[in-house]
Amino acid sequence: ITYGELWARARAVASGLRAVGIARGDSVALMLRTEPGFFSAFFGVLLAGAVPVPIYPPTRSARLEEYAARQVKILDNARARLLVTFPEVQRVAGLLRARVPSLRGATTLARLTSAPLLAPPTIGADDPALIQYTSGSTGDPKGVLLSHANLLANIRALGQVLGLRP
């Protein structure tokens, strides 16, 4: 993915999110596979001024109830307003939506990227950037809200330790 492609795709996602009523500071859950679309969605949520909440997609149909129970806790805690997913798991998305009061809907990347392009809002260093959750292996998953400044400080520290240069 080139920077230009990522920017264009993320901007399309941001416009789609704003078109469906996602406002600055709203949490948007991303139940997507690790593939190029995830990055477009993640950065699109950021460009919209919203907060991405990545969750894993279901992997085993035999443990679907256990999966749903864990994800409901995360989505409810994050007060997720929208769930972005892929067509193969729309049924699971509907199950989650029915159990999370804040969740207004579920959609796919294809639906989001069909909206007209809008200018992204200005985002500050102290604005929320990401809610990162623990695995929940010893209890309910716990979320930590990270700002853009937090993420940039971490990236700079990693770059310095690894000796990365432009």
Low-pLDDT stretches? none
Q: Quickly give the structural class.
A: alpha/beta
How many strand segments?
6
Distance between the termini: 18 Å
Plain-language structure description:
The chain is α/β, with parallel strands linked by helices and 166 residues long. 44% of the residues lie in helices and 19% in strands. The chain contains six helices and six strands. Helix 1 (3-19) packs across helix 2 and helix 3 (64-78) packs across helix 4.
List the topology elements.
Layout: H1 3-19, E1 27-31, H2 36-47, E2 51-55, H3 64-78, E3 80-85, H4 90-99, E4 105-108, H5 109-112, E5 128-133, E6 143-147, H6 148-162
Parallel strand pairs: 1-2, 1-3, 3-4
Antiparallel strand pairs: 5-6
Helix pairs in contact: 1-2, 3-4
Features:
166 residues; alpha/beta; four-stranded parallel β-sheet; 6 strands; 44% helix
Task: Briefly characterize the structure.
44% of the residues lie in helices and 19% in strands.
